Amino acid sequence: MRRTPVRRRTGPLAALAISLCLGGGLLAAPSQATPAAAPPTPSAAPTTAQGPDGAGPLGPAPSAARPVEAEHVRDARTPLDQRPPLSADRDALRHDYDMSVAPATPDTLSPEQRHPSARGRARAACDVGDFTGNTGAALVEKVRGAAPDCVNTLFNLTGADARGAFREEQMVTVADALRAGSADYPGDGSTGMPQIVLFLRAGYFVHWYNPDDVGEYGPALRAAIQGGLDAFFDSAHAGDVTDANGETLAEAVTLIDSAEENARYLPVVKRLLEGYDASYDDSWWMLNAVNNVYTVLFRGHQVPEFVDAVERDPSILRTLSDFAAQHLDLLGGEQSYLTSNAGRELGRFLQHATLRPEVTPLARGLLRRSEITGRTAPLWVGVAEMTAAYDGANCATYGTCDLPERLTEAALPVRHACGPSIDIRAQEINAEQLAATCASLTGQDAFFHDIARDSGPVADDHNETIEVTAFDSSTDYQTYAGAIFGIDTNNGGMYLEGDPSVEGNKPRFIAYEAEWLRPDFAIWNLNHEYTHYLDGRFNMHGDFAAGVSTPTVWWIEGFAEYVSYSYRDLPYEEAAAEAGKHTYPLSTLFDTTYENADTTRVYRWGYLAVRYLLERHRDDVDTVLGHYRAGDWRAARQHLTRTIGSDYDADWDAWLTECAAGGCARTA
Fold first, then answer.
1. What's the pLDDT at 630?
2. What fold, for 414-663?
């Protein structure tokens, strides 16, 4: 993905809804690093916001061809005074290593493949009126009887529907149902408890973003939610180590944060961390339940009562330290994130001067138990990042001074020039792989220029040399890239353009080897990201902020996909399948932004729009690119929305039919 704007958290945890599972990686301006991450839709899986260090916890991945899921995701850097609620699309991918475009991309997996516990769950029809038109016991019955997928859709409610479903009286009713249902909670979803909890989470989420629509939340709801959560966590089966219980438990832990009850439930956080053992590893949901406590801790720093509570009883600090120290064996394995998150969240308490004397020796102890490279690196780097962010003046105490430079030298020892315009820095790559990578990149230049029909770099662009940074795996990218480059890593890679008008500016894209394709060697999204560099230098005037001052994402990501697939002579089967759905008129796609679209619209439909225009209306492409190259974004926008407008929509629709029927099987 090219440079994407930072989406600030402004509600309980709206993150995955915000991030995109990039078809190619991300674009980011110097101070605008955003994730290209987990999929799509404005109501996505739970994630955490980031603090100034830019790193929240990571999360569990189910057994799949490659790691694709996570609860704690690096999100756009967010001020600590903003705390959006977590959104919740169960089918959204939750992992700090979400990839993008390639065979078997994660967002093409079925819900059952992503969430084993979802197997057999039908996608029932969902009538919003069931929740807006009922109150009291009738409302509770509708919530209990709805499919979780149906309740997920409520995260998108606005206006009268938002008020009808989630005004305080409705939320109090359902919170009371959580309390009542906990008395005989059987440890599974048979009584509708997952839906009850998810409904409450949706209410807090919608209220955060649409407070005027929903109305005020006050003491009545706070008392009700405390009563409901108290009853649930005290229930006999809330601690069952099973997938059946884990579904409700994981959501309930997230609900703690949604309701901003982070301080009250610190004992629950401790109980889950202290109770974890290998028996949890057989349950995806139980792993999420444990990992979600890091969300409660991470975002708790934004709640004054939470900090006060830890100051009164700092035992959670020792719990985190002990968890990390006792589970060093997890590092390098599927549950590595549990250990590294513990260290990271311990270190985050360094931001409070009153707690620093207790945190410092614990953080130093974890740094001594781990190393900057190798299996224990995720723990070392996570703790080191926190020391740099929150106690940098005392870096010598921890041995973490000059952290980005030290990490760069340790993790990216390979340096290689592909020629005068491309430099490679890599973690581990042999001569044959370097040669293949250079050939792929340099060979793409002529292909790009043939399609773009440019006459050279745009005015004031000095990005003459690009640095290609390649980590050895998605895990290594996740471990190091954020600390070195200050970017988010819940994506398939990121292009950092910088300010091309500055002499000596160093654009780079940061990527990693697709370890799931081994023994074949491939740097994930290599050609997509390189297209962003070429597009920025030869087609898009100015920096990223200028380039997205009007909706240009249809071109930015669609063209990168088009060049990547066409240059590699690969059919884009997922895009052709989308064409058969006729989801979007062409005129609608001209309005695509990173904020209003999901992965499918940004990448697959962007590809389709670019391909259609190149095949059927090349003159219009030349006109629009002429305006882009001059930085006349308004003129380009006018051509798309007024000159073209909806005139091509009928022909576009017919072209989509041809594409889906095999017309797009050939590469362009």
1. 98
2. Glutaredoxin (3.40.30)
